[in-house]
Amino acid sequence: MKCPICTHLCQYFDDLSSRVGYYHCHRCALIFKSPEHYQDFDAQKKRYDLHQNDEEDAGYRAYFGRFLDFVLPRVPGVRNALDYGCGATSLLASMLEEEGVACDSYDPIYHPDPAYREKRYDLIVSVEVFEHLHHPEEVFSELLEGLRPGGYLAIQTQFHPDSESQFLKWYYRLDPTHIFFFRPETFHYLAERYGCRYIGDDGEKVVVIQKDRSRAET
Ligand SMILES: [Zn+2]
Question: Distance, CA 67 to ligand 1 centroid (Å)?
């Protein structure tokens, strides 16, 4: 099967105990679950309902705090933002507001307000969303369109261990709604392909990319 991000031919490997198969791209480092294991919308929603946390939970706040601690120093001057795939919570949006950044929220299940498509943002954040998407490159491209020239895209998704044997032992792949697994190399590839600047990653799960300043607004 071809890599849905870079079209390179991928290698198949599988988990002998569960029979779940994966494809590994050796050009952009993407790993993705074989499509027959993707879940339908209702099954995904049931799983997401379990995920939802109390906004007052101190641990949840600390979790977003760590994300913002990495991102905010790398995105100077941002005044408005979109939280793409926020889930049932608006906690990350409120934490950005506390930092002086006006923030909209969008989620296809819990906040399905398409108004964000008409706006342009200085910053789009997307935390633990990309591993769930069925067409991550389309969403990446769509989010870039939602940025002003010079705007930033900050994505959190756990980077996979770059070995198939380690991958099969990795807890993150076991969530049945996780289907795409990335590495910094995958985001380097996407950034280059879309003419963006790769600002940096934390080596673990967060990456910041900047849209070309000269790219025309659409
Ligand atoms: Zn690839």
Answer: 26
What is the tens place of the pLDDT at every residue in 181-214? Answer: 999 999 999 999 999 999 999 999 999 999 998 8
Closest by CA to 85, choosing from 151, 22, 29, 146, is: 146
The mean pLDDT of the chain is 92
Distance in angstroms (rounded) separating the CA atoms of residues 215 and 69: 28
Q: What is the pTM of this model?
A: 0.93
Whole-number Å distance between alpha carbons of 181 and 161: 10
Domains, the chain: 11-210 (3.40.50.150)
* Distance (Å, whole) CA 162 – CA 47: 27
For helices 91-98 and 58-71, the axis angle rounded to 10 degrees is 50
What's the CA-to-centroid distance between 27 and ligand 1, angstroms? 5
Q: In angstroms, what is the span from residue 74 Cα to ligand 1's centroid?
A: 27
Interval between CA 124 and ligand 1 midpoint (Å): 24
Beta bridge partners of 134: none
pLDDT digits (tens, 9 = 90+) for 25-81: 999 999 999 988 887 777 777 777 776 556 567 888 999 999 999 999 999 999 999
Q: Helix, strand or coil for residue 19? A: coil
Residue 6 Cα, ligand 1 centroid: separation in angstroms?
4
CA of 185 to the centre of ligand 1 (A): 9
Two tokens at 3?
């890599």
